[in-house]
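Pinned message: reference record for MARVEL domain-containing protein
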Amino acid sequence: MLPWIQAIRIVQAIFGLIVLALTAYVVSTYSWWAYSSTVDFLLFLGCWTTFVAVPYLGAAPIFFPRLAHHYVIPAVEVITMIFWFAGFIALGAELPAPAYCHWSACSAMQATTVFGAFEWVLFAVTTYFAVVDLMNHRRSGETAQKTQHNAHLGV
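Predicted structure (tokens):
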């Protein structure tokens, strides 16, 4: 694992917590946003990122290597990246134009959209490296298997 990935994991957790707090605020205002399924999805996504995905992706390879399966890490990365992409695009499509957004819940949703976009970029970067690591793992496994197999043929 690359050492700078852990710094990105911390930023991902912070951004996930920010999205969680902003969407929880919007739900608590009882505005018409509080009844939006997009806000509910982003509330779930903040919880998913902060309490499930980032702790697993950050801690499993270091402290629990048996739980850090080489297919599960890229799968969690890809799923979380797709979730963030869908979430911030859906919320951005529902937002009114900035000229008509003068109440606190709308401003919170604008901030949520921005943090969601940054979160998607961060997960796109870490997903790329997780997939590259998976491909390198598969190649090294195939090479080791062929070498081991050829060694037995000559004996």
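Pinned by admin. Summary line: Residues 29 and 105 are 7 Å apart (CA to CA).
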